[in-house]
Amino acid sequence: MARQGLRSTEQRRLIIDTFFGTSEHVTIEDLLTAVKSRDNRIGYATVYRTLKMLAESGVALERHFGDGFTRYELADGETHHDHLICTSCGSIVEFEEPEIERLQARVAERHDFEVIHHRHELYGTCRACRLQAQQGDR
Predict the structure, then answer these.
(1) Which terminus of the chain has fewer Cβ atoms in its 10 Å neighbourhood, N or C?
(2) Of 43 and 65, which is predicted with more confidence?
(3) Burial group, residue 78, by CB count within 10 angstroms (0-12, 13-18, 19+)
(4) What structural domains does the chain harbor?
């Protein structure tokens, strides 16, 4: 926080601890709701600035899944994962697939291209939403 010019306050520590304790892809609003349940003095701007600082420092990653919301997840330099995004309910499933990673590396090599980073996002409908739609058709 000092590198970003932000004071280490009790509120910011609560925001960071709460963010680190989640395994979800959280929006600012999600995190605000969670921290307000423990300290209702925390405002939107404090959560926003804290998440931006975490993203700028590489601790968090900003994700945009096409629904108009910015979501944040912890950055993990050790592993890479991709996402399945349900366009009906908005659920997000993380997955790892070594075969996809190998194929991407072969394509990049074939084109003499050095990949710095990538995102793989698959959009569709989850099983629960498909079953709900089928039941509605009856």
Answers:
(1) C
(2) 43
(3) exposed
(4) 1-77 (1.10.10.10), 79-138 (3.30.1490.190)
